[in-house]
Prior knowledge:
- This protein has a domain at 152-224 and 234-279 and 287-335: Rossmann fold (3-Layer(aba) Sandwich), CATH 3.40.50.
- Helices cover 29% and strands 16% of the residues.
- It is built from 13 helices and twelve strands.
- The strands form three sheets. Strands 1-2-3-4-5 form a five-stranded antiparallel β-sheet, covered by helices on one side. A five-stranded parallel β-sheet has the order 10-9-6-11-12.
- It starts with a helix and ends in an 11-residue tail after the last helix.
- The protein binds magnesium ion.
- The site of magnesium ion has 8 residues, from loops.
- Magnesium ion is lined by residues 83, 163, 165-167, 283-285.
Amino acid sequence: MTTxxxxxxxxxxxxxxxxxxxxxxxxxxxxxWRHRKNKAAATATVTGxxxxxxxxxxxxxxxxxxxxxxxxxxxxxxxAAAAATxxxxxxxxxxxxxxxxxxxSKVLAxxxxxxxxxxxxxxxxxxxxxxxxxxxPTTAYLSCAQLAPSRLVRxxxxxxxxxxxxxxxxxxxxxxxxxxxxxxxxxxFMDYLLTNFAVAVWSSARPENVxxxxxxxxxxxxxxxxVVVWGRDRFGLSRADYDSRVQVYKRLARxxxxxxxxSAHPDARRxxxxxxxxxxxxxxxxxxxxxxxxxxLQIPEYAGPVGExxxxxxxxxxxxxxxxxxxxxxxxxxxxxxxxxAGYTL
Length: 346
Ligand SMILES: [Mg+2]
């Protein structure tokens, strides 16, 4: 036991009634397995008022490694990890003092400090070149979106690429990726979209989690009406990026070139195609829409009922109805991006 450790133990014992710092005895050498388990622990035994008091001082460890259960949670759902913060959350470890009062025949637990390990997250990283790197909009895309919008006489069936987490639902516990809270009006909103438009669900969560969330959010009949339900496996990520907290990009070209999605176009047989004129991506993240920024209907992130603005999804519903009238969605969004109206009422 070092001088500093003895001093720390003495300070702790000063708060124990009836204990005097009469004797600080060096702890017996710990057996090897105990030594490996907690190298930083030091134990001292003090007598005071006829009682023995055993104090264990555990030195704080500066951990660079994440707790096992948190690593597991990040592996299970990198999207949840990526959605939470943009920087690592660092908590200072607390010194844990465990005090046991000892009498001749019995041991009384005076206090027990149970420390919950902090949920430390990795920083979001840039995807590797193997995963496609960071996309930019093409010149052709920007030129087309730059033109003036025009309104059709009748609405048409458009393609809606729908995000889940932060848009339709919120997962409060990152360790339980399948547990979620639904955004107000989410179910009726999705029912309306699935009835009137082509809807593709695309989340960056793992596919098994995505299918679980969709099964809870939608009825089996509604699920059948989804054009596709995609998860993390549809981003073209490398194996390492798939398991990492990497920024993902929803490149709409991936959606437009998919056979199942293409066949959902109302004029597919006559050469009709989905493109920037008839597609909207509904998502709470602007970065994910980096390759087609003017096709993004950016919705405020849903982080649970506290702080949620009223009637968010009903306003998104109205905006999508207007998009259905637009000859080119990217031109309209560029000029009239979605904005919430604080005075909106149903
Ligand atoms: Mg999201």
